[in-house]
User: Fold this.
Amino acid sequence: MAQVSIRKVVKAYEGGVQAVKGIDLEIADHEFVVLVGPSGCGKSTTLRMIAGLEEITSGEIAIGGRVVNDIPPRDRDIAMVFQNYALYPHMSVFDNMAFGLTLRKFAKEEIRRRVENAARILDITPLLDRKPKALSGGQRQRVAMGRAIVRDPKVFLFDEPLSNLDAKLRVQMRTEIKKVHQTVNTTTVYVTHDQVEAMTLADRVVVMNHGVIEQVGPPQELYHRPTTRFVAGFIGSPAMNFIPAQVENGSGALRLNLPNGIVLPVPEERTARYTPVAGKEVLFGIRPEHLTEPKNLDRQNIAVFELTPEVIEPMGMETLVHLWLQGSEVCSRIDPTTPAEPGRPMQVAADLNHMHLIDPQSGRVL
Amino acid sequence: MSATTAAPAQAQIYHKAGSIKNERRWAMIGAYIALAVFVVFFMFPPFHMLVTSLKSSAEIADLQGNPWIVRSPTLENYRDLLTQGNYVLHFRNSVIVTLCVVAITMVVSILAAFALARMRFWGSSMLATGVFLTYLVPETLLFIPLFQIIGGLGLYNNLLAMILIYPTLTVPFATWIMIGYFSSIPKELDEAALIDGANHFQMLWKIFIPVALPGILAATIFAFTVSWAQFLYPMAFLVSSENMVLTVGIVSDLIRGDTFQWGKIMAGALMAAAPPLLVYAFLMDYYIAGLTAGATKG
Assistant:
């Protein structure tokens, strides 16, 4: 049993700056939870409070049902993997991994068994006698993970473990981390600023901003049903387009007035939901993949209009087109075979089944 | 067109600079000449000491002949020093004092530096600066008040006084060096150790000391040099020959009035220079190996 409970946790620094402003989060046993957000959002501070490396100003953190506020890190039964690996430079890989067990006075054979087992899981058995400086970045990160695995802790904590690796290795290690989690099945809290990492790894993603939790949910839910403008914009790459719009009530059917004189009909099933904001200014949110070359025109709620491309970015499997829309730019994802040329107006189709409307004042998705 | 004009210009540049191999050879030749000049310059005094120590008193006093050449080499100065008088006693005293001072210095400065560099507490950065400032007070000013303290403690003319007061010179600077080294150790390393289950003492013993070994050796060499070569305090606080350390012992025992026993003084000084030489020779390898190992990332 190793669920983690965070209840009304606040972290304030001297001078009154609040890094974490009273968050609540329940992490279930065996769950892989990713805290994601921009720098300074409080995600690392939260993780460090779980680890016991930062004091909790107020509130309560419990690991496996035991409140750990005043328990030092070594007695919390957690293991942590750091961004810069934090391997002990004077110790061999074996000793690095064995260090925690040695301090806890495990028997020699038990230590050897556990280290060798972890080395096998991570595929670093041939490296056990090397010093960290003789390892590549990816190998060091494996050793850091090995150091966590051998302890067989209640909770794994990862603090941006892949940020120091190059792009290719990062993808590889990401898969590796997921594999390890599937093998050892330990409750994991993982901090990253990279939403792709968050989406690919997490059972549940926690999006944080300015010290508060914006939204918690499985990756798909966050992607398709964001509750705030921040989450809508943060999750997904390229980011969701936000276009200022006005909702107009025209004889029972709602319409959206966009810049450039574009008028979009609001899908019928959403009329009730959006009627309260009729006549108001809102933000129309749509993801680039729902703003494409005209296709699926037989489906309902596809609106076609004309925009002018400014920049074309071929990605291989798709092409990103940045279109000019009165002062702002919107991004569209089109098929690479569709002709597009900067400066030449083209037809784009918006799939309004996937549209979002956001209240610009509160930032809530309506 | 542009290609044809560029080619000769490039060739000219390469011609002017000469080959890398050639340039490197000249750099090496220059470096060796400069080093040779330095070595000759700095080896003159020890060489003169060695030559003089191998001469008899009569030969030293003889103004005829080349002073850089020994006509009839003798080891009598060395033999006399080691068999008569208090030289061996002085040597032993110096060893005792230095070993104790180095031990005290390292224990105090490592603990102090660890606390000042890592356990952020109120006023810790001010204290760290304060530690260094105490090093700036000249010993020539300190020995007067110290005289009263030593007298009050009843330690006048006692070796123990040296063991107590040398650290006032060595601890501040050694602490300062160690603070620098400890501060350069990434914070995540202590956090990893804390999570791995280490308490602060284990963290210091198993992580900080091994990782900061080059710094610790630098501080050790410093403490050793300072206490081995210290002259003012023993001069002021030690009066009887059997309590003296080498630095003052040689001067007070081998100079009687205006009679300088040059041969013995040089032999004594040469033998006194042996321990620092050995310490440097042994520690320097580790020291430099440690420095270069820490220089690259990781």
User: Anything to note?
Assistant: The CA atoms of residues 61 and 281 of chain B lie 35 Å apart. Residues 1-6, 294-298 of chain B have pLDDT under 50 and may be disordered. Chain B has two domains: 2-53, 76-296. The radius of gyration of chain B is 27 Å.
